[in-house]
Every structure is written in structure tokens, then in C-alpha cells.
């Protein structure tokens, strides 16, 4: 089945939004002098992460995690594990998790639960896309790039079966 890609968010719109989002994030941490730990959730957030951290005007530290889900479609969220854990300690630090999409919220709920157990000073979420209408877990995104009600999107780091991550805009994927 062939894939049809319909333009959804252009590279220019993303770049503009990143600048305003970066300012919001900078403003929100203005009273703290310690570096903000920015955590990239691999793989989907890698392009957004690399852009947004350059729009945050304050000292930061970067680290990466990768989650793997072994659940089936019906037991979704029950068997999430780290396939790559953080390398730096987050104890007593301000932490910002940077994700591509928060959808049902199962992955983020798991991640927040683990990170909270490591006693950060604060823990917030920045997500390129917030599909809040599909939420099953109570997870709220502190800094959202764009909101989306439904549909499957690819590009700018987001994949369908590992494809399309390299596109510089975001596209809605359908089959024809
Ligand atoms: P959640 O556990 O349902 O919140 O899953 C969120 C994860 O599913 C995201 O981090 C993405 O990796 C993936 N995902 C959800 N919707 C899409 C989409 O439209 N395109 C690409 N990946 C998606
Ligand atoms: Mg993801």
C-alpha cells in the first residue's frame, strides 16, 4: 500500500513556534541559576530536541533516554522499560523532559514515575505535539508546540515504521 503524505506543519512554522516556546521555557526558569537538565526521549524527539535547546536562553545539561514497549495493542503501557537510561544524576535539579508526541500518555506516565523517584527539584514536560484528546493517563504537557486531535503524522523526527524521520516539515500520513 502506497503512503500519501499531506503537508501539515511547515519547517518555517516549526522554527517560529520553537522560538516562542523557547522564550516561554526560558521565562519559566528565570529564577533558577542552576543548569536545567533537558532530557531527550529518543528517537522521535531528536530533531525537535536539537532545535528547542538552542532556543532556551540559559545554562542547560543534556541527556537522553529511550523507552521500549513490549506490550501488545491491548496491554499498552503495561510493559514499558528503559532501553537506554540517563547517564547524569537529576537529584535536586530542574528537569525538562522533551518528547515528540504525548498521545495516550502511557509512555510519559511511566517516564515521569521513574524520574520522580530520583528526586529532581522540579519536573516538567515539553512536547512538540500534544494529542490531548486521546489521553488515557493523567499527564499534562507544560510546554506544547502544537495540538492535534487525531490523525497520524510523520516527519521532523516522527516516524512510521522508522521511515520519514528526516523530513524537515510534519506531514499527515494516509494510505491510498
Ligand atoms: P503514548 O504512550 O500513547 O502517549 O505514545 C506516545 C508515543 O507514540 C510518541 O512518543 C510517539 O513515539 C508515538 N506516536 C503517537 N502518535 C504518533 C504519530 O501520529 N506519529 C508518530 N508517532 C506517534
Ligand atoms: Mg516517542
Q: What keywords describe this structure?
A:
three-stranded antiparallel beta sheet, 34% strand, 20% helix, six-stranded mixed beta sheet, alpha/beta, binds magnesium ion, Rossmann fold, 176 residues
Concise overview:
Helices cover 20% and strands 34% of the residues. With 176 residues, the protein is of the alpha/beta class. The protein is globular and about 50 Å long.
Query: In what order do the strands lie side by side in the largest sheet?
Result: 4-3-2-5-6-7
| DSSP strand count | 9
Portion of residues in beta strands equals 25-35%
Q: What order do the SSEs take from the amino end to the carboxyl end, as H and E?
A: EHEHEEEHEEEE
* Mean pLDDT metric: 94
Largest sheet: 6 strands, mixed
| Number of discrete domains | 1
Runs in which pLDDT lies below 50 for 5 or more consecutive residues are: none
Q: What is the helical fraction, as a range of percent?
A: 10-25%
Rg, Cα atoms, Å = 16 Å
CATH topology: Rossmann fold
What this model shows, in words?
With 176 residues, this protein is an alpha/beta fold. It has one domain (12-150): Rossmann fold (3-Layer(aba) Sandwich). The protein is built from three helices and nine strands, in the order βαβαβββαββββ. The strands form two sheets. Strands 4-3-2-5-6-7 form a six-stranded mixed beta sheet. A three-stranded antiparallel beta sheet has the order 1-9-8. The radius of gyration is 16 Å and the shape is globular. The model has no long low-confidence stretch (mean pLDDT 94). Bound molecules: inosinic acid and magnesium ion (MG). Residues 41, 44, 99-100 line the site of magnesium ion. Magnesium ion (MG) binds next to strand 5.
Amino acid at each position: 500500500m502506497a503512503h500519501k503524505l499531506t503537508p501539515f506543519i511547515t519547517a518555517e512554522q516549526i522554527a517560529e513556534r520553537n522560538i516562542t516556546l523557547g522564550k516561554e521555557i526560558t521565562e519559566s526558569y528565570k529564577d533558577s541559576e542552576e543548569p536545567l537538565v533537558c532530557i531527550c526521549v529518543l528517537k522521535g524527539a531528536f530533531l525537535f530536541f536539537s532545535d528547542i535547546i538552542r532556543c532556551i536562553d540559559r545554562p542547560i545539561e543534556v541527556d537522553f533516554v529511550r523507552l521500549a514497549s513490549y506490550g501488545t495493542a491491548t496491554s499498552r503501557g503495561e510493559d514499558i522499560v528503559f532501553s537506554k537510561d540517563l547517564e547524569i544524576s537529576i537529584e535536586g535539579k530542574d528537569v525538562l523532559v522533551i518528547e515528540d508526541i504525548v498521545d495516550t500518555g502511557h509512555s510519559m506516565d511511566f517516564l515521569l514515575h521513574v524520574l520522580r523517584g530520583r528526586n529532581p527539584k522540579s519536573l516538567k514536560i515539553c512536547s512538540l505535539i500534544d494529542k490531548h484528546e486521546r489521553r488515557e493517563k493523567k499527564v499534562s504537557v507544560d510546554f506544547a508546540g502544537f495540538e492535534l486531535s487525531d490523525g497520524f503524522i510523520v516527519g521532523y523526527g516522527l516516524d512510521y515504521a522508522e521511515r520519514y524521520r528526516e523530513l524537515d516539515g510534519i506531514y499527515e500520513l494516509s494510505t491510498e
